[in-house]
Design brief:
CATH topology of the largest domain in chain A: Rossmann fold
Organism (chain A): Nocardioides psychrotolerans
EC number (chain A): 7.6.2.9
Order of helices and strands of chain B: HHHHHHHHHHHHHH
Strand content of chain A: 25-35%
Number of strands of chain A: 18
Strand content of chain B: under 5%
Number of helices of chain A: 9
Shape of chain A: elongated
Domain ABC transporter (chain A): 3-233
GO molecular function (chain A): ABC-type quaternary ammonium compound transporting activity; ABC-type sulfate transporter activity; ATP binding; ATP hydrolysis activity
Order of helices and strands of chain A: EEEHEEEHHHEHEHEEHHEEEEEEHEE
Protein name (chain A): ABC-type quaternary amine transporter
Largest sheet of chain A: 6 strands, mixed
Oligomer: heterodimer
Distance between the termini of chain A: 39 Å
Structural class of chain B: mainly alpha
Distance between the termini of chain B: 29 Å
Number of domains of chain B: 1
Structural class of chain A: alpha+beta
Number of strands of chain B: 0
CATH superfamily of chain B: MetI-like
Chain lengths: 323, 292
């Protein structure tokens, strides 16, 4: 295991940011810490990096106990949400910073900086100042800077949070490819479940200072440990006494199968290829998603009477009382 | 006033991208691009500036120039005047250097640390600037004068000049550095730390270059104020020729004796000194800001 966190608790005044958290993150993988804002995931990342100190518990990195090591000695690369660029230095100087501090020979630094700038596709910008780069470019520069010192682990705190949707998606794919190239153990924090599902090998779901579930994206999506994980990873609706995803509900225009719940469509919304129905049943409102073609086949309009069943093989969890 | 100065020097501070990239062709603007509003604003600014500063300044230089170069040399050849000039310039430089260190430390403490009475200290910093300067002299006289409770009888010695100048220029660097320090993002320092930089390296290579334009702006203000100080020195220094007499007192003496030309010559010399120091500060500031 590359990073071992055990029994970490962190309080800010009365607020419990982390409550007895233990996680082991395997070497060479890309792990996402996923959870809602204020859930403690950034705090955990900062404690791993040594930027914050845990009240209790231990952190070990690559087998060495790092609990009392200052950030300077941990040899971790850290990438911040708002880039944290050194504004007065050129792109090349920013990337060289960690190496210059380590007093490496000039030629070696130059060579390594060239290599890294090529890796992050910023070679032609090496003499620019960070203020002349776009947000996405700045973040790639920050990544190159963090990688320059050959860290044992790379930690990214909401790395794409400040970027617009399109750039975010590009960088996300790019990060995945970069990770496949350099293979450094990487942990990134995100509150975007799509980002986590798409990029990560493993996801740690953190909520209210506790770990809710650890697993691969498929495991989390198919076998959510609880209602929270299910709800956080995608849309959820309630059909009778179970909770399931809106696209896992089968709609029929006739009362065919046994146990079907009958209802009336109160709202029908077309968004691109999909159709969202709000069906009013005896057990409350149910949201259903189906394709446009399917809806047309069934001849659904607002006010139609429909019968709903859970699709076979659907991921379901029992509904909690008073949700 | 101070913030305007910071703004100006900060804008000029970082290396201009055009200057670095010779290949980029600068588009020239042959046409007047000012809108009517902007033209009006510029006009008002220029008239005001001319009436208050440019024309009177030119008049002084013209008055001083009437005697030709020899007028300047005659003034400087006077031993008493030369003593006043060296005393003023050297004390102003010393005080400015002290302010660069102490002012930055005070700004740091006010921004980064939490302690009881911080708000109060923050307000009191401006007192030396806000006090009428003659009162400032009185205040210092009570502690360092003939009846000094500390046993420091500095009144009427060159130390008194240092003391008075340090007192009145104290707020300048504090007030220019403080807002810049507040704007510095903590994550930049954390990034440097995670790259292995020690605290000292972070201060030297990350924080100082960011503060350099503000420190330079404050130092320029502090120096300019120091070489022109008059009020606080009157009580404290005693204006003793060759010992504690500063340039502004000397100028006054010239005028009182009806020697307006010498007064103007000495004034324009001090103007040149101030310009040289301010330009030098800007050069140093650019060096530091680009280092790192």
């Amino acid at each position: 295991m590359s990073i071992d966190v055990s029994g970490v608790t962190k309080k800010f005044g009365d607020f419990v940011a982390l409550d007895d958290v233990s996680v082991s993150l395997p070497t060479g993988q890309l792990t996402a810490l996923l959870g809602p804002s204020g859930g403690g995931k950034s705090t955990l990342l900062r404690i791993i990096a040594g930027l914050d100190r845990a009240d209790t518990g231990t952190v070990s990195i690559e087998g060495t106990d790092a609990t009392r090591l200052p950030a300077q000695k941990r040899n971790v690369g850290f990438v911040f949400q708002h880039y944290a660029v050194f504004k007065h230095m050129t792109v090349a100087k920013n990337v060289a910073f960690g190496l210059e501090i380590r007093k490496r020979p000039k030629a070696e630094i130059e060579h390594r900086v060239d290599e890294l700038l090529k890796l992050v596709h910023l070679s032609q910008f090496s003499h620019r100042l960070p203020s002349q780069l776009s947000g996405g470019q700045r973040q790639r520069m920050a990544l190159a800077r963090a990688l320059a010192v050959e860290p044992k682990v790379l930690l990214l705190d909401e790395p794409f949070g400040a970027l617009d949707a399109k750039v975010r998606k590009e960088l996300r794919d790019w990060l995945r490819r970069l990770h496949d190239e350099v293979h450094v153990t990487t942990v990134f924090v995100t509150h975007d479940q799509e980002e986590a599902l798409e990029v990560a090998d493993e996801i740690v779901v953190i909520n209210e200072g506790r770990v809710e579930q650890i697993g691969s994206p498929d495991q989390l999506y198919d076998e959510p440990a609880n209602d929270f994980v299910m709800g956080f990873l995608g849309e959820v609706t309630q059909l009778g006494d179970i909770r399931l995803r809106p696209h896992d509900i089968e709609v029929s225009a006739t009362p065919g199968s046994a146990g079907a719940l009958s209802g009336r469509i109160t709202r029908l919304l077309r968004v691109g290829f999909e159709v969202r129905l709000t069906v009013s049943t005896a057990g409350g409102e149910v949201t259903v998603v189906l394709t446009r073609t399917h809806a047309r086949q069934l001849g659904l309009v607002e006010g139609s009477h429909v019968w709903l069943t859970a699709a076979s093989g659907a991921t379901t969890v029992p509904a909690m009382v008073a949700v | 006033m101070t913030s305007a100065l910071i703004g100006a020097s900060a804008a000029a501070g970082p290396a201009s991208p055009e200057g670095r990239r010779p290949r980029r062709v600068r588009r020239t603007t042959p046409h007047n691009t000012l809108t009517r509003g902007a033209g009006l604003g510029l006009g008002v600014a220029m008239i005001w500036f001319s009436l208050l500063v440019l024309i009177p300044l030119t008049a002084v230089i013209a008055a001083a120039g009437q005697g030709g170069w020899s007028g300047y040399f005659d003034v400087l050849r006077n031993d008493q005047t030369w003593a006043a000039v060296t005393l003023t310039v050297s004390q102003a430089l010393v005080v400015t250097l002290v302010n660069i260190v102490i002012g930055s430390i005070i700004a740091w403490v006010l921004v980064r640390d939490d302690f009881w009475g911080k708000r109060l200290l923050d307000v009191i910093i401006d007192v030396p600037f806000a006090l009428p300067t003659i009162v400032a002299g009185l205040v210092l006289l009570s502690l360092y004068g003939p009846n000094s409770p500390l046993g420091l009888h500095w009144a009427f010695t060159p130390n008194a000049v240092t003391l008075a100048l340090a007192f009145v220029t104290l707020p300048f660097i504090v007030r220019t550095v403080q807002p810049v320090l507040e704007e510095l993002e903590a994550d930049v320092e954390e990034a440097a730390a995670s790259l292995g930089a020690s605290r000292a390296t972070i201060v030297r290579r990350i924080i100082l270059p960011s503060l350099a334009p503000a420190i330079a702006a404050g130092a320029a203000l502090s120096f300019a104020r120091a070489i022109s100080e008059y009020g606080s020195l009157v009580l404290l220094s005693g204006n003793r020729p060759f010992q504690t007499e500063v340039v502004s007192v000397r100028v006054l003496t010239f005028i009182e004796n009806g020697n307006n030309q010498s007064a103007a010559a000495l004034a324009s010399i001090m103007l040149a000194v101030a310009l040289v120091v301010i330009v030098a500060l800007d050069v140093v500031q650019r060096r530091v800001a680009r280092r790192g």
